[in-house]
Amino acid sequence: MELFKVADLDEALNIVLDNNKISLGYEEIDILNSLDRVLYEDIVSPLNVPDFRRSTVDGYAVRFKDTIGASESIPAMLNLKGEVVMGKAADRDIKEGECVYVPTGGMLPYGSDAVVMIEYTEKLDDETILINSPVPFLENVVEIGEDVKKDEIILKKGSIIRPFEIGVMSSLGIKKVKVYKKAVIGIISTGNEVLDINENLTLGKIYDINSYLLMSLVKKDMAEAKSYGIVKDEYDLLKGILNKALDECDIVLISGGSSVGKKDETFKVLNSFDDLGVLIHGIAIKPGKPTLIARCKGKIVFGLPGHPLACSVIYISLVKKYIQSLVSFFEKEIPLSCTFGLNYHKAKGREEYLPVNLIDEYGELKAYPVFTKSGLITGFSKAEGYIVIPKNEEGLRENQRVYVYRL
Ligand SMILES: Nc1nc2c(c(=O)[nH]1)N[C@H]1C(S)=C(S)[C@@H](COP(=O)(O)OP(=O)(O)OC[C@H]3O[C@@H](n4cnc5c(N)ncnc54)[C@H](O)[C@@H]3O)O[C@H]1N2
Ligand code: MOO
After folding, report:
1. Fewest CB atoms less than 10 Å from the CB: which of 126, 153, 213, 323?
2. Does residue 190 contact residue 212 with C-beta atoms inside 8 Å?
3. What is the best residue among 187, 232, 307 to mutate for testing ligand 1's pocket, by most ligand atoms within 8 Å of CB?
């Protein structure tokens, strides 16, 4: 009996992207509120940073050629022509054989092209400075535009704004920035056995895990989570709530009710809207196979497996990538390279997401699996990361090189 038409993960993501109809648009916000948001457009620099040759030390601005061959026994002798005041433009040029005192961060006078640190100089009198060491061209200087060049694309659309990017924007005098609006993700838990955390637990029931899990994952991914609570396994109830969520959100996640159990109404509800309905039922991934993907009212709906580990894996491997694609953000994941601690067998045919812990064994980092089940929430909470074992592999050998993604 073939239960699902199973798609590979890449295929599933492509189908989602091909059938996406929404665009989030942007909002313009103060740079200080833009931390962890995603840039909506390239930022082109309106100016050079710095806009003048700037000293990185306290010392004397010179023409580097005047210091060639200088030493303690035969110093170069330069005429002191005043000093540059911090925060003010240097008001005179220097010529051959001249120098001017500059503080760290001060502007170099025109004509100078290097700075000699004060430690390598001696003041002979009020008008004469002895230079004890030569300086190469642009030594101790930040050149005009060395940090940022005028008209350069300094920050790219789709990048995440970190404290460093906020610093770059402030260096350019940019006060407000356009960022993608946050995607609003609706979350619905289903199941007659699932109770809200505020209800009394009775035998046969369980507390809702997936709403809390998904809301937290969504928040971590810079999107906005909107919970629609727990819905009993009844067609009309689920249809009503989903309809409301589709009107209010950009994406909807429904947990539970995606496999073939007789009470599983999700499939029927997803096909009941005047749109494409179910696009995929089943992904070749372990855990997480009975995943549903549909388009309803122009929005993508993910029917995530009820088992919490499977639900997390589908979120991380698929939902998260779709959310990121809406803000043009393509995360470069940098897994940790190490060796595997034992022989591990898996069945061919599904890509497996295996939770692991890292142990330092005599200076060598080894990954060991966390033996768990898809129905257990602690699978990932007991793990530091996970390994992705390709679909057609039969497992991992002891000492084999593996790549661990951090959770
Ligand atoms: N005959 C088959 N049975 C099952 C198959 C299958 O291929 N053939 N697949 C199994 C796999 S794998 C998974 S994963 C689950 C997926 O089930 P559903 O997505 O239909 O979800 P439910 O049946 O509603 O629940 C499964 C499991 O998860 C618990 N659950 C559900 N919602 C929550 C929640 N919000 N918080 C915590 N736990 C939740 C639920 O109580 C069930 O124990 O199907 C297998 N069965
Ligand atoms: O897909 Mo299920 O996720 O193996 O429990």
Report:
1. 126
2. no
3. 307
C-alpha R_g of the chain: 31
Residue 286, ligand 2, Cβ within 6 A:
yes
Pairing of strands 76-83, 98-102: parallel
Report how far ligand 1's centroid is from the alpha carbon of 260 (Å): 9
CB 406 within 8 Å of CB 385:
yes
Ligand 2, atom 4, lies closest to the CA of 287
- Give the model confidence (pLDDT) of 326-370 as tens digits: 999 988 999 999 999 999 999 889 999 999 999 999 999 999 999
Residue 196 DSSP SS3: coil
| pLDDT one-digit tens code per residue, 230-258 | 999 899 999 999 999 999 999 999 999 77
Kindly state if the Cβ of 256 falls inside 6 Å of ligand 2.
no
In single-letter form, the type of residue at position 389 comes to I
List, in order of start, the domains of the chain with CATH numbers: 9-24+182-326 (3.40.980.10), 26-46+155-180 (3.90.105.10), 54-142 (2.170.190.11), 336-406 (2.40.340.10)
Q: Looking at ligand 2, which atom is closest to the CA of residue 313?
A: 3
Q: Is 191 in the pocket of ligand 1 (CB under 6 A)?
A: yes
Question: 38: which DSSP letter?
Answer: B
298 lines ligand 1 (CB under 6 A): no
Please state the ipTM of this predicted complex: 0.96
Name the token pair of 250: 């950009």
| Measured torsion, CA atoms of residues 299, 300, 306, 311, in degrees rounded to the nearest 10 | -130
